[in-house]
User: Fold Transketolase from Actinopolymorpha singaporensis.
Amino acid sequence: MTTHLEHVEPAVSPTDMRTAFAQTAERLLDEDPLTAVVLADISADLFTEAARRHPGRTLNVGIREPLMVSVAGGLSLSGLRPIAHSYAPFLVERSFEQIKLDLGHQDARAVLVSVGASYDWTQGGRTHQSPGDVALLDTLPGFAVHVPGHPDEVPALLRRAVAGDGSAYIRLSNRSNAAARPAAVTGAGMIDVVRRGGGALVLAVGPMLDSVLAATAGLDVTVGYAATVRPLDLVAVRELSGPGTPGNAADVVLVEPYLAGTSARLVDEALADRPHRTLALGVGRTEVRRYGTPEEHDVVHELDPAGLRRSVDGFLGRGAS
Assistant:
């Protein structure tokens, strides 16, 4: 006999992305007997009740992240849809060989969900920082990548990833915009037009939106928002960046919360048939060895509103404001 479990959404939205992820993953475990969650101690306390109800599909392998990915690969090959979760550098960088071989090479499919982003926990030092995670996954074919900018965007993006046929990476962060964006809340994967202007397209990814809006205040630019960057909505990039003509290039400013330039290749390929310029902003390649705070790291990488404004003004040939 099967029992249908009725799920009631919480009256108050989670205030952080990790909680939103755990709550949604737990509902997926209840709803779909093919869903599984594999942990490596990180966030295990958020899955205590799920592990009690679904002990065979909520697995904690301990501090063994490569094993976690290998287990996820095995679960996938057995017909399950696994979600593997840990800190970004442990999930992607430390376990990359297993992602490449036990997922990609074996044609296994999993949803990888990270926390920590580029430098959310600066006090943890370089071991807990991963600005190169999306660029590293770009070396493998077929990975979808979602970068929510608000906790309310997480449930639909996770559900979309789990329902998909391929592997996906969801990059959670402690940083958040003040409000969720409609296209991300529905999980549609499209670029959301936040503000229309007559000049360049400034494309903010995930939690960079609020800083971009502050940095571009008063500028005649279009601000777009993307929570799904693989695949990137290149049709919208072409439309919003303008036709581009000799002497009047289409200008695109990419603002990503990970390694600068990660998505520049895609934009340049999409606009290859028209004159265009691309400015790629993000985390720099110089290692910041002082702990500080995430906000202080933003300043070093010029990802704070003032630093972004300087970069955009310089790119557009404007004087300092």
In short: The mean pLDDT is 93.
